[in-house]
Design goal:
67% helix; mitosis; two-stranded antiparallel sheet; mainly alpha; cell cycle; 50 helices; ARM-type_fold
Length: 1069
């Protein structure tokens, strides 16, 4: 018995074969729809098996394979056309790849060939999402092929080629991925990177470092291809998404990869990339695999992250969680509670061994505080008092932790210098932690008792340690460690109770013994710290300044006296600061005092003056100046001379007579001693900032017969801008930056031009602090005031003239990026940087345009003409208000255009200038429309101000009625006009539409105008609108007073309201 005929949806009979083919298509499409919504891998595997079986069934149907392949192609096109439901669409691609490779293993290659052909056809499609899915499909095919091949090779080691994907098809797919790595869209590049990253293995990694050119794509076997080189080349991708994908996919199994990722964590321009790189290092790189510098830089990077919220805390906790285990030699945390508590008790001190507090003290200190808090919370002490946490730490006797009862271990235990430094530094960090976390005084008192000995004991410990370690000759590195330990001990002093006078007296004696002991090698930093601590704790009040000064003078006297008379048993007070003629001063003057003694005395004096407690000369300071400072400036030791001049400079800043007397000495030293130049420049700069540049310049140029003696001081700084000594160059530039921020002088534009060029000189990159100084100075200077922006405008011609002259001789400026210099001028003179009254004065860009057009007019074939045209195109004229000025610029622009002939070389210039002229004309039309609209709205302005002026009119309505008959309305009108001009009545309802009037033609003498603008410093908050017109600066457009309603009209309306109110009151009565 035969079955009946089959019918199509339209009712037409179809054959059984057609029905089977239709079923193949429907089942395939249903499989794709299910895969799109599937949630589990098991379900996807089930769908994949059914799709594979469907192909096998289609072999028995005439035309079934063709229908299967056509439906598969159609389903793939639908899958890859949209970006929504991405996970489901990737599942469809996975299903297709699995089926194709499985069938290819059984000799049925048509589906696999179709997928490869689909990738080839769609790889260059203009639809971004399709290209990204093509990359995903190609990666799936290559990766699954590798997995299948590896599995079959393990099952049958004798078989050489187990890959279901032929080499030709593999080459084709990899060529697609290689091409898409250069795709213009980052979404496509990221998918290509993910696909290639999945092919990494140890063989490809080994090959990658034997390949010198990572961008040369060759293919023999996918497994052997240098995938890592391809990924590494994309660590510099312009897209942060691609860089993040690369970071996540690198295997980090080589030192080179780790260094690259660390570099990205520290220096990438995007916060997201730095965060991703840091997280990757924390999770996948062992602490010991990082150098000390890398560890410290990473810690500082985490500390400095902009997002200081929860994400920052999470990253820091992840870092501590991994690093603490490594520091303690643990692969995993202990399960036992006691062992876990013991682990966290010593974890922070063990982590300190992997840090570098000697060179990065603050970073190490901050990390220690975070680590202690992390351990405290993990031990379960986060919600209780800190003293319980301290008790738990003190119970670990094996640790380097110092406390009240074992602090003598610092000397008696036989620790190395590094262990001593770590122990004292950890002691100080623990004290800082307790001080910051203790909520109650009782809690801090208990922590203080458990961690610190008595002050007498501590002073003995400190003095004994300093005597032992600072009196012996050590290598430089070992001495630095011991000196660091002493500095940490000094910082612990601040934790002691101020209510222990005997203890502080002991400490004062200890400090004086240390400072006066010439057998000890004291550094400048150590002496500064000792003196600063003495002032902070012994003489904290300004009233005690003289007492402190007298004590330190006695100390220096005793040092000199012991040096001159080693066998003397009695000392006369203040011999070194007495009036000349006594024996000590005579011996000092004769040079019998050892250089080390002079150096120790000037170190103490310098540290004393750097406390900033003495701002007025007295007899003791005069004695110090004459008998110690002046004698130290001629010492043989250059460090001694530097300290002496620094001390002299501090006194000169506060005393004008000292500054006047020492200026000539500073000037001569500046010429003679190259090593002292940075110090001399700093002194001159500080004097100019405090006493005023004109006065110091007059002292500096005294006796000169030059045309401009007041300019000599500035030229001294300018002379050393290009010094070969980096410190001198940096100091000169830094001082000039300070002086420019202090005052704006039109005569200094040449030096300002030098600073700008120095900022863009590639050689400046070799001096990081100089580069940072100049890069910071330019925007700050531009934002400071409009006068500063006018100085920049005046510096424009000189800057480019310098570039022209230097280019002729092929000098250092020939390496400067001139386009960047032009862009800097445009952005630094933008009115968007200004605020308040400076912004109301108007933009300085019109004056800059005048300079640019003048340069083009003088030399139309200037080599920098493209730069000038680019500057004009970057300038925004939407905030310009002076129509007359804009029209003058339009005329100048058209004149410059007429100078150019229409050639291929100049066509770009003409287009840029024409575009600029069109921009100006558009602005003029906009202003004229605004003025016309404002005039048209004058008649309506009366009603606009009714409500705003009502209260003010009511106040004077009685006066208007009383005086109107006497003066016929004149006096009230005059009074009201005065109030109107003062702008006290009200504000217009629409302040965004100011009334615009035409200003006079701007004169060409820009320097004269700038000088007048600087001297006058007019602030546009006038009390009378007539004063605005009389005192109007020539640099800005006129801003009229607020237009109000006619006074009589307002008074009449107010009168009606007033009479109406009075009538209503009389009726009520």
């Amino acid at each position: 018995m035969t079955s009946g005929p089959y019918f199509s949806p339209t009712g037409r009979p179809i054959s059984r074969q057609s029905a089977e083919r239709e079923r193949v298509k429907n089942v395939l499409q249903e499989s794709f729809r299910r895969a799109l919504r599937v949630k589990s891998c098991a379900d996807l595997c089930d769908i994949t098996r059914r799709l594979k079986q469907l192909y096998i069934d289609a072999l028995n149907i005439p035309g079934g394979i063709e229908r299967y392949l056509a439906a598969l192609r159609f389903a793939l096109e639908l899958t890859c056309e949209k970006s929504n439901e991405k996970e489901g669409r990737i599942n469809c691609l996975k299903m297709s790849a699995h089926v194709a490779l499985a069938l290819s293993q059984e000799g049925m290659h048509e589906p696999l060939q179709l997928l490869v052909d689909f990738c080839v056809d769609m790889s260059d499609l203009c639809v971004t999402v399709t290209r990204s899915y093509v990359c995903a499909l190609a990666g799936l095919l290559l990766n699954l092929n590798k997995l299948i091949s590896n599995r079959l090779s393990q099952q049958n080691p004798r078989k050489t080629d187990c890959s279901p994907l032929s080499k030709e098809l593999s080459k084709t797919l990899f060529a697609i991925l290689s091409k898409r790595l250069l795709d213009v869209n980052p979404l496509v590049r990221s998918e290509a990177l993910k696909a290639i990253a999945a092919l990494q293995d140890e063989q490809s990694k080994a090959d990658s470092y034997q390949t010198n050119s990572p961008k040369r794509y060759s293919f023999s076997l996918v497994v052997a291809y240098p995938m890592v080189s391809v990924l590494i080349s994309h660590l510099n991708d312009v897209s942060c998404e691609c860089r993040i994908v690369t970071l996540k996919k690198l295997m980090l199994s080589s030192k080179e990869e780790v260094d690259l990722v660390v570099n990205m964590a520290l220096s990438d321009s995007e916060e997201r990339v730095r965060r991703a790189a840091t997280i990757r290092i924390i999770k996948d790189v062992n602490l010991k695999a990082l150098s000390i510098k890398q560890r410290m830089d990473l810690v500082q990077g985490v500390m400095n992250m902009n997002a200081r919220g929860q994400n920052h805390a999470v990253i820091l906790n992840d870092l501590l969680g991994e690093w603490l285990k490594t520091a303690c030699g643990k692969d995993a945390l202990p399960d036992n509670g006691d062992e876990l508590a013991s682990f966290y008790s010593i974890a922070s001190s063990h982590l300190l061994r992997f840090l570098e507090p000697l060179t990065q003290e603050q970073v190490s200190h901050d990390l220690m505080l975070h680590s202690l808090q992390y351990c405290r919370e993990k031990m379960g002490f986060g919600s209780i008092e800190v003293q319980d946490f301290v008790k738990a730490l003190n119970r670990n006797a094996e640790d380097i932790s110092l406390h009240r009862h074992n602090c003598n271990k610092l000397i008696e235990e036989g620790w190395t210098a590094l262990e001593q430094a770590n122990a004292v530094f950890y002691w100080r960090c623990l004290l800082d932690f307790c001080k910051s976390k203790c909520v109650t005084d009782a809690d801090w008192s208990e922590c203080h008792y458990r961690l610190l000995p008595t002050m007498r004991t501590f002073c003995e410990l400190m003095q004994n340690y300093m005597t032992n370690v600072l009196s012996s000759n050590e290598t430089e590195a070992l001495f630095a460690l011991k000196n660091f330990t002493v500095m940490q001990l000094l910082k612990i002093i601040s934790f002691f109770d101020q209510g222990d006078p005997s203890g502080w007296k002991t400490w004062q004696t200890s400090c004086e013994n240390v400072l006066g002991n010439m057998q000890l090698k004291l550094t400048e930093a150590l002496v500064n710290e000792l003196v600063q601590q003495m002032y902070t704790h012994l003489w904290p009040l300004p009233e005690q300044n003289d007492e402190a000064l007298s004590n330190l003078c006695d100390l220096t006297s005793s040092i000199v006296h012991r040096a001159l008379f080693p066998n003397a048993t009695m000392l006369a007070a203040n011999q070194t600061i007495g009036i000349g003629g006594n024996e000590t001063a005579a011996e000092f003057e004769n040079g019998e005092v050892d250089d080390d003694v002079v150096y120790r005395c000037i170190m103490i004096v310098s540290a004393m003056l750097k406390t900033n407690r003495y701002k007025k000369m007295n007899a003791l300071l005069h004695g110090i100046l004459e008998n110690i400072i002046e004698r130290s400036v001629v010492a043989a030791d250059v460090n001694c001379r530097i300290l002496a001049f620094e001390a002299m400079g501090i006194l000169a800043m506060y005393d004008r007579r000292v500054a006047f007397e020492k200026t000539i000495l500073i000037k001569e030293t500046l010429k003679i001693d190259q090593r002292l130049r940075p110090t001399m420049l700093n002194i001159l700069c500080n004097m100019a900032l405090l006493h005023g540049y004109p006065l110091v310049s007059r002292w500096f140029g005294a006796g000169l017969e030059t045309a401009n003696p007041n300019d000599e001081l500035l030229q001294v700084f300018a002379e050393y801008i290009d010094s070969l000594d980096p410190d001198t160059s940096f100091t000169a530039c830094e001082c000039l930056c300070k002086m420019f921020l202090k005052e704006a002088n039109v005569a200094w534009t040449g030096v300002l031009s030098r600073l700008l060029l120095k900022a863009f000189d590639p050689a400046t990159n070799n001096i990081p602090k100089l580069k940072a100084c100049l890069v910071t100075f330019i925007p700050v200077f531009a934002e400071w005031s409009r006068e500063h922006q006018m100085l920049l405008v005046e510096a424009f011609p000189e800057t480019f003239n310098t570039l022209h002259s230097d280019e002729q001789f092929v000098g250092s400026f020939s390496r400067i990026n001139v386009a960047a210099v032009g862009s800097c001028f445009v952005h630094a003179t933008s009115s968007q940087l200004l605020n308040g009254a400076d912004k109301q004065k108007g933009s300085v860009h019109p004056f800059l345009c005048q300079k640019i057009l003048a340069a083009l007019s003088d030399d139309p074939e200037d080599d920098y003409a493209p730069v000038y045209c680019k500057m004009l195109s970057d300038i925004d004229a939407n905030d310009w208000m002076d129509i007359t000025q804009i029209n003058a610029l339009i005329v100048d622009t058209d004149d410059v255009i007429d100078l150019y002939s229409d050639t291929e070389e100049t066509r770009g210039y003409i287009r840029s200038l024409a575009s600029f002229s069109k921009k100006l004309r558009k602005r003029v039309a906009s202003l004229e429309t605004l003025i016309s609209t404002r005039k048209h709205g004058d008649s309506e302005s009366v009603d606009e101000h009714d409500d705003d002026d009502e209260s003010e009119i009511l106040k004077i309505s009685k006066l208007v009625l009383r005086e109107s008959n006497k003066a016929n309305g004149c006096k009230p009108q005059a009074s009201k006009q005065s109030k109107r001009k003062m702008g006290t009545d009200s504000k217009p309802k629409n302040p965004a539409k100011p009334r615009i009037t035409k200003s006079k033609t701007i004169p060409r003498d820009m320097k004269a105008l700038l000088q007048e603008d600087v001297e006058n410093r007019i602030v546009l908050v006038p009390s009378d609108s007539d004063e605005i017109l009389r005192n109007e600066s020539k640099l800005i457009a006129v801003t009229p007073g607020i237009r109000q309603r006619p006074v009589l009209a307002r008074a009449a309306k107010a009168t009606r309201k007033f009479l109406k109110d009075e009538n209503s009151l009389s009726d009520e009565e």
